[in-house]
Design goal:
Blueprint (H helix, E strand, L loop, with lengths): L3 H4 L6 H11 L3 H5 L4 H9 L9 E4 L5 H8 L5 E5 L2 H8 L6 E4 L13 E6 L12 H7 L1 E11 L1 H6 L2 H10 L3 E6 L3 E2 L9 E9 L1
Parallel strand pairs: 1-2, 1-4, 2-3, 4-5
Antiparallel strand pairs: 5-8, 6-8, 7-8
Length: 203
């Protein structure tokens, strides 16, 4: 029998994904385990993004990254997620100025250049946000702003993400800044998953 965590990787549509995260929301933090990826991503972000920056946490989930950012002194935080129940959990952490239920991969309801930076952790993976999401994330980030996200190394290589990211760079939409070393995410149910933190600057 597939667990609630495992079920999110078998969703076939954004609506189905949202429903599965709704079911998981209250227990998500406990079921995921230690999950050090938000901490690792924030440690990278602080090297590029000023504390007063307007930041979008795209795919904020229960708000773990937002809570860490808030503790680091980042208070102009805005969250976006596909699941209203995950957003409900994020709201309890009292670290976001606004929260928005929207779908990555679709047109986002923000003006061009709204944010100084976007952070997206544990969002670009199987059955989740597609590589086409980057188009809108670039649009809503101001020129010179940063987009920081995590990817599994093998998923990056085997999916269309590698080509999409290269195509956006060749088109002058963004430039690559760094890719961190792989680290074990610490997921309780998936102990062998490694992630990397990627950083791009919007042109």
């Amino acid at each position: 029998m597939t667990s609630k965590v495992g079920a999110v990787f078998e969703a076939n549509t954004p609506q189905e994904l949202a429903e599965r995260y709704n079911d998981l929301a209250e227990s998500y933090d406990d079921e995921l385990g230690t999950d050090i990826s938000p901490q690792r991503a924030v440690e990278v972000l602080v090297r590029y993004v000023a504390s007063e920056a307007r930041i979008l946490d795209a795919g904020c989930g229960t708000g773990k990254a937002g809570q860490i950012l808030h503790d680091y002194g980042y208070h102009n935080l805005h969250g976006l997620d596909i699941s209203p129940e995950m957003l409900r959990e994020a709201r309890k952490k009292n670290c976001y100025v606004t929260l928005h239920q929207q779908v990555l991969g679709e047109t986002l309801g923000f003006a061009t250049g709204t944010f100084d930076a976007v952070v997206s952790i544990g969002v670009f993976l199987r059955s989740h946000a597609p590589s086409s999401s980057f188009d809108e994330l670039i649009r809503i980030t101001r020129p010179g702003g940063h987009i920081i996200f995590t990817l599994r190394p093998e998923f990056y290589a085997a999916s269309d993400f590698k080509d999409t990211m290269a195509t956006l760079m060749a088109a002058g939409r963004w430039c690559w800044i760094e890719t961190g070393e792989p680290f074990n995410a610490g997921f309780k149910e998936f102990p062998d998953i490694n992630l990397q933190v990627w950083v791009y600057r919007v042109n």
